[in-house]
UniProtKB/TrEMBL annotation:
It comes from the Bacteria. Gene3D superfamilies: Vaccinia Virus protein VP39. It comes from Nonomuraea monospora. One of its GO terms (biological process) is methylation. CDD domains: AdoMet_MTases (cd02440). This is Class I SAM-dependent methyltransferase. Residues 59-154 form the Methyltransferase type domain. Keywords: Methyltransferase, Transferase. Pfam families: Methyltransf_11 (PF08241). GO terms for molecular function: methyltransferase activity.
């Protein structure tokens, strides 16, 4: 168990409450879904995750905002959302009310999943958030405590090799890497323009994201050590032919910013 409400917890919680207040992209509930759209949005078949989630226990980890939770609930899953932000969780409840579906919300730190009790989840869905804490090993150990035998763990995270790099790093010929490739190296950069609708640089008073690099070797070896087997890996990149060098669109085609993993857990397989 991790002692929560340290400075890292407070920074992340305060930032996400401010993002909710600003109606940033990842705080906006998806209110135009039906079952077909929900299935396409989640892309379970593409990832090799069993597509029939009806009645299955799904944990949306650090995934508040009324997006993935709503999609899973529409497909009949038994959904729990665990998030650091009370505002984000309110968006999940709002989306559930909109669709007339039920879900459970729990506020907490992904470094301590003990508030979830003894529930064993068939699928843990963990979108971009791993880099908000220094030590990924703590998170992966917690996930191993709450996932069912044979369950799947979807993880989307920063591409470790490009963590902290953005289109602002364009030097006229390429994108310059300047951050050290070491675990827990701290980095910060402005939110991307597409995070906000009305104020491209972000409303005043919202602090920049504080992120920590997670090396690929630590991610992979820790999850193997916890009893997970890798079943899918994809690089998430942009496809914008003719994009202007130095733009976000161009950058995402040169240096894929994100990775998607799917892992399957087997009890007793930990090494």
């Amino acid at each position: 168990m991790f002692a929560v409400q340290d400075e890292i917890y407070r920074y992340n919680a305060e930032r996400w409450e401010a993002l909710v207040e600003a109606d940033a992209l990842f705080t906006r509930p998806m209110l135009d879904l039906d079952e077909e759209k929900a299935r396409a949005y989640l892309g379970l078949e593409r990832l090799g995750v069993p597509g029939d989630v009806a009645g299955r226990k799904v944990l949306c980890l650090a995934s508040g905002g009324g997006q993935q939770s709503a999609a899973f609930a529409l497909l009949g899953a038994d959904v729990t959302v665990f998030d650091i932000s009370s505002g984000q969780l309110e968006r999940d409840r709002s989306a559930a009310d909109h669709y007339g579906v039920a879900l459970r919300t729990v506020q907490g730190d992904m470094r301590d999943l003990s508030p979830l009790g003894d529930t064993a989840f068939d699928l843990v869905w963990h979108p971009y958030s791993l880099t908000f804490v220094p030590d990924s090993r703590v998170v992966f150990h917690e996930v191993a405590q709450v996932i069912a035998n044979g369950g799947h763990y979807y993880l989307m995270c920063a591409n470790p090799f490009f963590s902290g790099l953005t289109h602002h790093s364009w030097n006229g010929e390429g994108y310059t890497l300047t951050q050290p490739y070491t675990d827990e190296a701290a980095t910060s950069y402005p939110d991307q323009d597409w995070v906000y609708t009305r104020a491209p640089s972000g409303p005043p008073g919202i602090r920049e994201p504080r992120e920590y690099r997670q090396t690929l070797s630590r991610i992979v070896n820790t999850l193997i050590g916890e009893g997970f087997t890798l079943t899918h890996l994809s690089e998430v990149r942009g496809d914008y032919p003719g994009a202007e060098p130095g733009s976000w669109a161009h950058f995402t085609g040169v240096a894929p910013p994100w990775l998607e993993f799917v892992w399957q857990y087997r009890s007793g397989q930990a090494v």
